[in-house]
Design brief:
Strand content: 15-25%
Structural class: alpha/beta
Order of helices and strands: HEEHEHEHHHEHHHHEHHEE
Helix content: 40-55%
Largest sheet: 8 strands, mixed
Number of strands: 8
Shape: globular
Number of helices: 12
Oligomer: single chain
Length: about 290
Amino acid sequence: MNTFENSTLGKYFASALFASLFLMSFAPVALGGTFHVRSLSTGEKVPLEQAVADLAKYRLILVGELHDNKEHHEKQLAVIQALHDAGAKVAIGLEMFRFDSQKALDQWVSGEMPPDEFHPVYYDNWNFPWPYYSMIFEYAREKKIPMAGLNVGREITRQVAYEGFQSLSVDQKGKLDNVACIVDENYMAFIKKVFGDHSHGKLNFEHFCEAQLVWDTVMAIHALEYLEKNPGSIMVLLTGNGHARKLGIPTQIKKRSQLPHAVLLPETPGYIMPDTVSVEDADYLIVKQP
């Protein structure tokens, strides 16, 4: 089961930002090893390049991560590269950026915004060091691959976590319908695990659950909006494993659309393995081979 470190909500309640990294710049990283994709329905494992033909059938591909695991980001980049190299019109959807930061993302991809201006924007949006993600952002800039901010302002999820969804004003709710803590029992177990590990008695569980669902829902809405406006695109959505699993964002996608989508989780020894996850969690695992 996913832990709180997969939940960005948790990190917003955790330690402060590494401010000393604001002005650091990193070149793209060459990926070591090869990548394979394992189908959770058949058990078959094939090279990522061979799996692209199947992956390209989907409009939305959610690729999970532990935010502080750089190898997971290498796997995410490998999926993006494989689709791009195969000729797909790829876009990158980001849990890491708010929807209202789209202009800065566009300027980054186009080359209009230099790194020393973009890094403070990155840290205003996200709580994890730039080096974990730099290879993805640099590749998008090099190849002019669109990046889409999908998230809502942290002040919204923080308010919901402490005061509940109904505390939001009409303007704050925006495109969100009513959000209530009504979920599948397995997803409820995950949310309770997260809450129990890190709430420290400061949060109401129902409100915390609503905040998790706000996160899932707003990313689903913005991803669908992007793909509706860009009908020829395939979005690779990068997000924490808890949000990527089928009970997270994909459930909110299915409530709103018949859009074909798939979930890839990074195979992680002792955590995400063929014997610990199933087709109820994801469609594929991506593994890095030596």
